[in-house]
Design goal:
Layout: H1 29-49, H2 55-74, H3 77-95, H4 101-137
Length: about 140
């Protein structure tokens, strides 16, 4: 009786998740990543060229450029998988049972109290070793 492995799970078909071809790269993904790289380089060049323009306007330009780059990245296979991961993470965060304010306050007090007790203990150990060293050196 050997161990049986289940067959591989089928690829998810979502809005932007497309089945991969034999090479493992979705068509045009490399082109999209190259476009993102060129947009980033163009942003650096534009930032240098327009260095006299006030900083808030350049920041707005960067924000627009980053949003466009994220939009292009979202259309890639990896971008679709990342978006699905973020959506699933948000759904899992909604399921978390967060502690009440009272529980948080009590836990914080316990941590502070233990930290103070440990600090006093380590201070005592340090004093003891300093006393021992002073006895040995005199």
């Amino acid at each position: 009786m050997g161990v049986r492995f289940p067959p591989g799970l089928p690829e998810e078909t979502g809005r932007n998740i497309v089945k991969q071809d034999n090479t493992g790269v979705v068509k045009f993904d490399i082109f999209k990543w190259a476009i993102i790289g060129l947009m980033l380089l163009a942003g650096f060049a534009a930032n240098y060229y327009f260095s006299e323009v006030p900083l808030p306007l350049r920041i707005v330009g960067w924000l627009i450029l980053v949003l466009i780059m994220l939009g292009v990245a979202y259309k890639t296979y990896a971008g679709g998988k990342a978006w699905k991961f973020f959506k699933d993470s948000r759904n899992e965060m909604r399921k978390v049972v967060w502690p009440t304010r009272h529980e948080t306050f009590q836990t914080t007090l316990i941590v502070v109290a233990i930290s103070i007790v440990l600090a006093i203990f380590l201070w005592g150990v340090d004093l003891f070793f300093m006393w021992m060293i002073s006895l040995l050196t005199t």
